[in-house]
Specification:
This is Alcohol dehydrogenase. By secondary structure, the protein is an alpha/beta fold. The chain is built from ten helices and 17 strands. The protein binds NADP nicotinamide-adenine-dinucleotide phosphate.
């Protein structure tokens, strides 16, 4: 079988404010440990658009290939690759640790997945559950794994002890976390700026499950409402996508010994950070910073999804054609979406 000789690739533009499509050569031969993949779908994360809008707090490659989340199939493998064969359903995992131990992030400080063909080292790939379409599988590597590590903390067995969880906003990480909650019988509370967005969420649950919802615009003291919804107890896990500006509300809504996972920065990064020392102490809180997750976290999540056959398509808000990728980025940045925005290649 003859292999493709070139790939259609998006890169960030010279001014760093948009993305542009071009054609690039693929290597003529694979090294023994490399795998050539055909990427069928890519899902967007806030970081992908934050990089174009001067809102990403860590350095990203100038002119780099954006995006981290793909659903792909294996086209060809190098001579020593044993774990994959042509046709396998795979995704590159988000985190890559270099030989000198530095953690790098796909689509940030090394080339990402917004392209039709790509070559990766075999140990950067994870097999996807067979029941998922490439569009669904594309939700997993960043959004899914972040939701998973936020709920599972540093040990997936701990997710079994979480009985209530609160997610901020109806973006990709929050809605993936909502699906994990429903699969693991964790009672979810989700906040949003919009009653319309909240109204559709109950459809994601089975008839005997309840999705609890709070409009944070109408109810600025949403933590008070979360306490009412949990009989005054508070929630076991809180997935913080907003950042520093919601920390006070987070601690108020948290159960004693609960966990706050610091995931996002949607509310901005103020120069003066809140002092939460006493709140950590008095709540005996576990506060963890999230860097998506390891390859093992990624595999654990795939195992859970495969066992429970969790349907991911209900949290796909909109699918764009590859040629309309720039529009997809603008749509995500508008915040009009609920859940995930996907690009089909
Ligand atoms: N640390 C990590 O490893 C990691 C991994 C993934 C993502 N992240 C970060 O987590 C955050 C969420 O990512 P995402 O991809 O899920 O984002 P997203 O899909 O773009 O979510 C955006 C949604 O969040 C809500 N929102 C926006 N600003 C808000 C604010 N000030 N207060 C409350 N809610 C707000 C809005 O929902 P409503 O209209 O419903 O309110 C908005 O539609 C981002 O900051 C992202 O960079 C971090």
């Amino acid at each position: 079988m003859s292999l493709p000789t070139s790939a259609r690739v998006y890169r960030r533009t010279e001014d760093g404010k948009d993305i542009e499509l071009s054609t690039e050569d693929l290597p003529k031969e694979l090294t023994p440990t490399q795998v050539l993949i055909r990427i069928h779908a890519v899902s967007l994360n806030f970081r992908d658009v934050a990089m174009l809008n001067d809102r990403y707090p860590v350095p990203a490659d100038h002119r780099g290939i954006p995006c981290s989340d793909a659903g792909a199939t294996v086209v060809a493998v190098g001579s020593s690759v044993k774990d994959f064969v042509a046709g396998d359903h795979v995704s590159p995992t988000f985190r890559w640790t270099t030989e000198d131990g530095v953690m790098r992030a796909l689509g940030g400080d090394f080339d990402g997945v917004l392209r039709d063909y790509a070559v990766f080292e075999s140990d950067a790939l994870v097999k996807n559950p067979e029941y998922l379409t490439p569009e669904e599988a594309s939700l997993i590597p960043c959004a899914g794994v972040t939701a998973w590590t936020s709920l599972a903390q540093d040990d997936w067995k701990k997710a079994d002890k979480v009985k209530t969880a609160l997610m901020e906003g109806t973006g990709g990480v929050s809605l993936f976390a909502l699906l994990i909650c429903l699969a693991k019988n964790i009672t979810p509370i989700i906040t949003s700026s919009s009653d319309d967005k909240l109204a559709g969420l109950q459809k994601l649950a089975d008839a005997d499950q309840k999705v609890l919802a709070i409009n944070y615009r109408k109810t600025p003291d949403w933590a008070e409402e979360a306490l009412k919804l949990t009989n005054g107890q508070g929630v076991d896990a809180l997935v913080n996508s907003v950042g520093a500006s919601s920390m006070d509300q987070n601690f108020k809504a948290l159960k004693k010994f609960g966990t706050i996972s610091l995931v996002g920065f949607l509310g901005g990064t103020p120069e003066k950070m809140p002092d939460v020392t006493m709140q950590i102490l008095t709540k005996s809180a576990h506060v963890q910073g999230i860097a998506v997750g390891t390859k093992e976290d990624h595999q654990d999540l795939c195992k859970l999804l495969g066992e429970k056959k969790v349907k991911l398509s209900p949290i796909i808000d909109k699918v764009f054609d590859f040629e309309k990728s720039s529009e997809a980025f603008k749509y995500l940045y508008s915040g009009a979406h609920v859940g995930k925005v996907v690009i089909k290649i």
